[in-house]
Design a protein that fits this description.
The protein has about 80 residues and is mainly alpha-helical. About 95% of the residues lie in helices and about 0% in strands. The chain has one helix and no strands.
Length: about 80
């Protein structure tokens, strides 16, 4: 009985230590992935702001062209 206990306890301890080390490595991986996704989210937010500014600029130019065309149409409609 003592021989069986002496054979299984060290194996159990080694397996438990392996599980705990693996768990800590998974936690490190998760924190690394969280940081990377946060950086990617920030880049998407920045790009969204850039595209919104460009869209507003284009819409302003379209409104300017529309105003000019309206004036020309009014001039030729007389």
């Amino acid at each position: 009985m003592l021989t069986a206990a002496l054979a299984t306890v060290p194996t159990f301890v080694v397996v438990l230590i392996g599980i705990l080390l693996n768990n800590s490595r998974l936690s490190d991986l998760r924190s690394y992935i969280d940081v990377r996704f946060s950086a990617i989210d920030q880049r998407f937010s920045d790009m969204e702001k850039v595209y919104e500014a460009r869209t507003n600029l284009i819409l302003g130019k379209i409104e300017d062209v529309d105003t000019r065309l309206s004036r020309l149409e009014g001039r030729f409609a007389r």
